[in-house]
From TrEMBL:
It is found in: Cell membrane. It is a multi-pass membrane protein. One of its GO terms (molecular function) is hydrolase activity. PANTHER family: HOLIN-LIKE PROTEIN CIDA, HOLIN-LIKE PROTEIN CIDA-RELATED. It comes from the Bacteria. It comes from Brevibacillus choshinensis. The chain crosses the membrane at residues 30-47, 59-80, 86-107. InterPro entries: LrgA/CidA. Its main location: membrane. Pfam families: LrgA (PF03788). Keywords: Cell membrane, Hydrolase, Membrane, Transmembrane, Transmembrane helix. This is Effector of murein hydrolase LrgA.
Length: 131
């Protein structure tokens, strides 16, 4: 049941991202905007991780099924790909690198924020001792 709930939440963010991208003319794919909104809601604590964790694990476990139509589609464009292979290769190499760098920085920022949120700061401790 939690998987269905999580998938519904993920689909809701996908739908909101797609509609926001279309209606607000944001030059960003709707699915990416939905993921950014989901990340923001997770960081703010509006969506709990355990609500979407099982659904995410399920979808990642069966991710290869989602690539079958893409692979078949790529095979139908082999003539176009053969004309300009370097643009495809560069996008395949640079795209994931940029995504990993941005994701790593966001996670570092989030963990740093959580660490300082959990521990009282030195200034606050000093003020408490002065009072």
């Amino acid at each position: 049941m939690k998987i269905v709930q999580g998938i519904l939440i993920l689909l809701a963010f996908y739908g909101v991202g797609t509609m926001a991208s279309k209606w607000l003319h944001i030059p960003m794919p709707g699915n990416l905007l939905g993921m950014l909104l989901l990340t923001l809601c997770l960081c703010m604590g509006w969506i709990r991780m355990d609500w979407v964790e099982q659904a995410s694990a399920f979808l990642v476990r069966h991710m290869m099924l989602f690539f079958v139509p893409i692979i078949v589609g790529v095979a139908s464009y082999m003539n176009w790909i053969a004309k300009d292979p370097w643009s495809i290769i560069l996008s395949m190499v640079l795209g994931p690198m940029i995504v990993m760098l941005v994701t790593g920085r966001v996670v570092q920022w989030y963990l740093h924020r959580q660490k300082h949120k959990a521990e009282p700061s030195v200034k606050q401790e000093g003020r408490a001792l002065d009072a």
